Amino acid sequence: MINIVLFGKPGAGKGTQAEFLKExxxxxxxxxxxxxxxxxxxxxxxxxxxxxxxxxxxLVPDSLTIKMLQDEVEKNPxxxxxxxxxxxxxxxxAEALDAFLNSKNWEVTATIALEADxxxxxxxxxxxxxxxxxxxDQDEEKIRNRYQEYNEKTAPLIEYYSAQxxxxxxxxxxxxxxxxxxxxxxxxxx
Length: 190
Fold this sequence. Notes:
Blueprint: E1 2-7, H1 14-25, E2 28-31, H2 32-41, H3 45-55, H4 62-74, E3 81-85, H5 91-103, E4 110-115, H6 118-132, H7 140-154, H8 156-163, E5 167-171, H9 176-188
Parallel strand pairs: 1-3, 1-4, 2-3, 4-5
GO molecular function: AMP kinase activity; ATP binding
Main location: cytoplasm
Subunit structure: Monomer.
């Protein structure tokens, strides 16, 4: 079983690369955003609860996010592994993920960060915003705010996973094929 945490700032290419990696290594791709949207759209108990926080403009508590992710993992008991995209985002979430995986005698195999210069990523998102319809991709101030939040909350995960010798940085600039090759090189050596 191989369980990979894929992270990087918004616009780093996580979603694009996850599509290639899940096919190549036969992994289940779990995107936190997709899981939230599914639960809210289908008005699951967890989705309704999450929506109350979102409607108030509050962050959904870690405990609720983790429960949604656990449910998603439980739907796929016979798999080669998981590709976690957008989770964990904090040390508390990483610890909860470790505890959950350990309860199944699994573990995070590796954490791979797609790294790129902020200025390049801002331009990527503004370009994506022209066609995505996502308002958070069309406002440079909001984009930079997302990066600030990433730096404060998610960047500490580098230390967390480095201490476990599970952190790998990959250059996220180049063609999609070049970046996929770099990610594959890391995965093949695990």
